[in-house]
Amino acid sequence: ELQGFIGTFNKMLPEDQLVNTQYLSHLHFLKFLQTKKLYNHFDKDYKSLINDLKKEKKAEWLYFIQQKAEELNVNQQILDSNKKKEVDMERMFEITAKHDFLCLLKKACTLKSLALGRNKVKTSIGLDSQIFLNIQEKASYFQNDSLISLYYEAYQAFDNNKKTRSLFEKIKILGKEVDPTEIQRLIKHIKNICLQHIWNGSEMNNNSFFQEITEYQAAADLIAPNKTISIRNFINIVNQAAKTKKFDWGYQFIENYSLFLPKGQQKQIAKVGESLLLFRKGDYQKTIDILDVNEMYFANDLELENNRRTIIIKAMYELRELN
Fold first, then answer.
1. What is the DSSP-derived secondary structure letter of residue 57?
2. What are phi and psi of 119, to 5 degrees?
3. DSSP of 156-210, one letter per residue?
4. Do the beta carbons of residue 59 and residue 181 sit within 8 Å?
5. Rounded alpha-carbon distances, angstroms, from residue 64 to 25, 67, 237, 294
6. CA-CA distance, 316 to 41, in Å (whole number)?
7. In this predicted model, what pLDDT tens digit does every residue of 204-256 receive, in sequence order?
8. Cα separation, 116 vs 94, whole angstroms
9. Alpha-helix runs per DSSP H in 200-246
10. What is Dmax (Cα atoms) for the chain?
């Protein structure tokens, strides 16, 4: 019978929503107690759940759990004949409105991010006027909520480049209150905006800003929280450090994060990273010495192999020019 309740709650979850299974189980149990009319046990467990949720960092999944808990609590007030007849629905309305508005803001940011560089400006404006009506007014209702405040700043940043810096500064201040997965999503939006400006020719300031954000991610343990990093991400980060001449940071990154690369490729990819730094430093012969050897041949990764050969050719060209 309890399994049936679990299935009902699982159907309520958004497909991309990652929810702590411990809290989902607690919701299922509350529903079970309520159905069995074990109201005293329900009240005790409901209060326990609410207290536990207060200790969690802000995230969409947290607001979802809080919303479902309040729906059960309102239903409890209706069902329990020993309770007062006036049902308090204020908290449920508040958390529902907060959760719905957060989802709206995140959807808006995703749409604006997808529109970057794809000539979809008109589509984005159309969505703003039709679906996201009075978004500024709604944001003012939740101005004291750190998570909504950050996503509203992100929403504005797509149309105001100055907001990317203020959003990043807000993240550094409010980051400890917010779930790391949400911080990563927000940082991804900032980086997408930076990349768009870089592609449009505004390289200098945006490259250094991009690097500053990456350094923050590393310091906050946001780059490889699960102790894994993809080859592409690793190389892109080292290459960005090389572009901005953050050589010491780049070498330190290689030392710290090469261990999280796929097993069997850690030393090889670390050498690729080192070669990128050496090339940018102008040490072209060392670049060639590292890359132009048999053990650095990437037979199973054509893109990486093409990049290796390109760097070798560029280094050889630079040496010829110097000589």
1. P
2. 55, 40
3. HHTT-THHHHHHHHHHHHHGGGB-HHHHHHHHHHHHHHHHHHHHTT-HHHHHHHH
4. yes
5. 14, 5, 34, 54
6. 76
7. 688 899 999 999 999 999 999 899 999 999 999 999 999 999 999 999 999 99
8. 33
9. 203-219, 231-243
10. 93
